[in-house]
Amino acid sequence: MTIDELKRYNGLNGARAYIAYKSIVYDVTESPLWKNGDHQGTHVAGVDLTSELSNAPHDNEVFEKFAVVGTLEGSEQVLASVQTPKMQEHQRDSYEPFKSKLRTWYKIYHPHPVAVHFPIALHLFSSGMDFLFLMRPKEAYDAGVFYSFFIATVMGFVAMVPGILSWWINYNFVMHRAFVIKLIVAIITLLLGVVAIAIYYENPHAVYEHSLKGILYHVIVLVTGLNVIVLGYFGGKITWGYGKYQTLQEDIKETVSLAKHQNTLSSHSNIQSISILIGGAAGTGIATLEKILSDAFKESGFYIFSTKEYMSRVRGGSNTTLLRISETPLDAPCWEVDISIALDVLALEHMQERWHKNTLVLADESFTEKKNNVVLVAMKESAKKFGSSKYANTYIAGVLFGLLKIEKNSLLQSIAEHFKEDEANKNVADFGYEEGAKLENLTLPNLPKADLEGVKKLHLMDGTTACGFGFLAGGCNMVTSYPMSPSTGVLNFMADMSKHLTIAVEQSEDEIASLHMVLGGWYSGARAMTTTSGGGFALMGEALSLSGMSETPAVIYLAQRPGPATGLPTRSEQGDLNMALYSGHGPFPRVILAPGSLRECIEYGYLAFELADKYQVPVIVLSDQYLADSISMIENVDFSSYEQRRYFVKSSENYVRYEDTETGISPRAIPGFGEGLICAVGDEHDERGQITEDYKMREKMVAKRARKSDALTLEAVAPEVVGEGDIAIIGWGSTRGVILESLQHLSNPRLAHVHFGWVHPLEPQQLKSLERFKYKVVVENNADGAFANQLKLHDIQIDKQILQSNGFNFFVDQLSVMIEKSVKELS
Amino acid sequence: MSSLFDRENVDVAWCHGCGNLGILKLIKEILEELEVDKKTSVIVSGIGQAAKTPYYIDTNMFGVLHGRALPVATAIKLGNPNLCVVAEGGDGDMYGEGGNHFIHTIRRNVGIVHIVHNNMVYGLTKGQASPTSPKGFVTKVQVGGVVNEPFNPLAVALSLKAGFVSRVNIGDAKHAKEVLKSAFLHHGYALIDILQPCPTFNKTNTYHWFKENSYVLNDSYDSSDFVGALQKAFEFSPMPLGVIYQDKSNRDIFERSIRGVDAKPLHAMSHDVSKIQDLFNSL
User: Fold this and answer.
1) Which end of chain B is more exposed for a tag (fewer CB within 10 A), N or C?
2) In total, how many domains does chain A have?
C-alpha cells in the first residue's frame, strides 16, 4: 500500500482505520482508542506513524494486538537519487553513530520528561503559595514560596540539560517554533529565578516590603508560574502534535527532509552510465569475472546492475553477463552495450548484434583481426606469462580498469578478496591495468561520477537472495523442494541459511511431495514453503487444491521460465500467471505476489508468510529467471520491522477446526498445542472436520471459504504509480525497473508508470485509480497478455499491449522504442 | 466395548464384514494399551476405504489426497518430532498412487508407523485391480484378468533397507495386534501390511482364502537376518505373517538427523531477527 492509499483508510464515514508503523500497516478499526480514526485527539488514522512513536507514551508493543493488513510502500525507500542535499548532509553527520546510541539510551530513560515535571510543579506551587502570602503575609507562606521557588529553579536547570540533548539527538536542533519558544522561555525563567533568589538571599525581609525589590520578587515568582505553563504547553505540542491533521512531527519531517517517495519521473538523459557485456562459454570463469568486477566497481563508488543470460548447459555454449555502472541507482538491463569483452571466439559472434557504432570491443589477438572498434589485447599470452591460461579473466579485468582510468586499488582489493589462495591473480590484474592504461585513441564512454558515500551504504545482491531474506523475515523454517531452474537459487539460499538459523530443509522426491510436505509442515505449526518453476508447479495443482479445501496455509516461490513443457530452461518469461491463477481444481482464495525490485522481494517474501498464515490460503510468489539472477543494489533493511506473527491458536477441549465465522477464517490450532484435537480434511466437511455430503453444510462451507476473499482483497497492496502523465504504462512483477528507466529515458510528461506487485486478488477500489488515465498500455514479458486479461476482467480498458516472449527480459533501449511507438499510435 | 479413542457421532461407511472394521478396533486398542496421548498423536490418511479409518478414531488427523499421506506425515514429523505420527491407507493409495512416496519415505527412515490395508482390490472406485491384485484377477476393467506382476511391498521395503517390515492377516486379530504393537514401538519407519478381505468387491481373497494362504512365522524365525527376510518376502503360497525384518541397531531417523535429537517443535520457534540482520548486513 502506498502512502496515498493509506490515506483512504482514515476511519471516517465507515472507512476502516489503518495506521502504518515501520512499513507495516495495521488495522485499528476495532480499537476503542481509535474511534472514528482518532487517537487521543493527537493522531489520525490513514498515516504513517513511524516517526511519531518515539514520542508516544507507549512503545511499539501496542501494535501487537492489531491485525496486519499490509505493508507501506516507499516509506523507507531511499533511492540515493531522490535524496535532497540537506538529507545527505544529515546522513553525513559525523556524530550520527554517537547520536544513535544516545537516542537508544534516551528512549529507555527519557530524562527530560522525568525531570521537567519537578520545576513545573514547584513553580506552580511557589506561585500558589505566593498568592496566599500576598493575601496573608505569614512567615510560613514566605518560606514555602522561597524554598519551593529555589528548588524549582535548580530543577529547571536540571530539566533543561536533557531537553537540549533531546533537541539535538531526536530533532537535530531543528529551529521549529515550539523549540525556540521553549528555549527562550526556559532561559528567561532560569535568569528570573536567579534574580529572585538573589533578592531573597540579600534580604529576606524585602519580600514583605513594597520596595522595588520586593515587588520584583513577587512578580518573578508569579511570572515563572505562567512560564512553566507555556513550557508545558509547547512540550506537549512537541510530544503530542498540533492538532488533528497537521502533527508537529510531520512539520519536523519537512524540515529535516526525511526520505520521500519518488512519484515524479526524473529525466535520465544527463546521467552517465556505462554498459559492459562479457561473453564466453560456460565454465570459462565468466561468473568469477562478474563477481570481481561488481565488487570492484562498488568499491570504486559506482551504482551497479548486472544480469546474465545463459544456455542450459554446464560447459560450453555461449553465455553473456551484462554489467552496468552508473552515478545513480540502476535496475534494468540494456541491449546495446558500450564495452564488449569476448572471452572466446564464439562470444565475439554471439555479442555482435549488441554493438552500437561506438562499442569498444576487447578481444584476444587470436580471436579476430584488427577492426575499427575491436581492440586486440594479449589476453591468452599475458595469462600464460603468469603460468596459466586461467588468468585471462583477471588480466582482462585489469585492462578494463586501466582503460577506464579507474583507481586500481578497488580492483586489486576485490581480486585479493576473491582469490585468497592464489596471489598471482593480483599481479596479473596489475599488469593488465598497466596495459589497459596504455591503450590510446579510443572512443571511450564518459565515466560516471563516483558516489562513494552513497554506494557504501548499499548492499549488492540478486533477486534470489533478496527473496530468500524476505522468506526469512517471514519466519520460514521449513523448505521442501525439488530442484528446478530458475527457482533452485532460493532452495540453495535457504539450505545455506539453515547453517545459521533453524530451518528444516528437505529435497523431496518430486514436486507432488514438495507441496504436500509444505502442508504437513504448516499443519504441525511450521512456516513452510516450496520453490519451483512452471513444470514443477504443474505437478502441485492437486496439493494447491488441498491447501484450499483443508485451509492449510502454503507458500510457493514460483520462478518462471518460458514454457510450455521444458521450454527454455534457463531463460526468462512471465508466462505462468494464468497457471498460478487457475491451478488447482475447485474455487478457493489464493494470493499471487510478483515482486519487481529487491525491496519488493523482501517485502513480499515476508508478506507471503503473514498472509498465508492469517488467511489460511496458498500464497504464490511469482518471480522469473531475470529477477532471480539479476544483481542490483538495495539500501539497508531493518529486519526488526518485519515482525513475525503466528496466527494459530491454543486449542480448547471442544475445539473445532472449521468453525463458521463471520470472516470465514476459522481459528487454526495445531496438534499438541492446547487441549483440543485438530481434524484437517481434504473432503468436504462439517465444522468438526468430519466428511459430509449434506448439501446445506456444503453450501455453508463453500460460502465460508469464499468469504475469506473479502478481507483478503482489502489487504491488496495498491499499484505503485510514478509520474503525472495521462498515459499509463502498466507492468507487473519483474518489469518494474525496466519500465521505470524507459520512461525516464523517454521523458515524455504524458507518461506514467503503474506497477503491480500485488497481482491477485485485485482490489476494485484500487483499480479505480486507473480511471484517471486516458490511455492504458500493458507491458508483459509473455505471449498471452495474462495480466492485461485480468485487468479486462475488472472492466479496465486496455488500449495497447507490449508483449515479448523470446526468452529475454525487456531491455531499456528496446522497450523505450516499443513504448514510444505505442504511444505515437495512440495519440 | 468402548474405547478412549472412540469418536462420537460418526457414520461408519464400511460394509458389514469389512476387514477395515477389525483394523479400526485393533488400532484403537493399541493406542489405548500403549497409553498414547490423543492430543499429541496424528493419523494422516489418503483416500480410499482404508483411508477413512482416522475419521473414526478420536485423535488428531489430516485427511489428505489419494496417495499423499506419506509426504504429509513426513513433514508433520519434521515440524514436530514429538508427535506420534501414523500414515494409513489402502494398497492402491500407498503402493499405487503414492508409490514414489513409499520408496522415498523408506529411504528417509521417517519415524512413523505406516499402516497399509491390503485387500488386493479397489473398493472406493468399485472393484478394479489394485497393485497387489494377483495375476488373472478379473474385474470390470481387467476384463481378461490382471496381467501385471503384483507389487511386492515387503520386498520393495526390504530392498530400500526399511527398518521394520511386517505383514499380518486381520483374520488373526491376536497376532496382528502383537505385530502392530511392535511397529508402534519401533524406532524409525515401520511398515505393516495388513491383509484384509473386501467382502463386496473381492470374492477371491476372502477371510478363508487369507487363512488358507498364509502362516505365522514361528519363534525360531530370526527377524534380524536381512537375507533370510528377503527370501521370506518372496514367499507367496502361503504368505509368511509376522515381523519379517527388524533392524534394532538404532539407525538414524529422518527428523532427528535434520532437526537434532532434542528438537523443539517448529511452531515454538522463531528466527533471531538480529541474526538475519547480520547475515544481510554481511552482503
Assistant:
1) N
2) 6
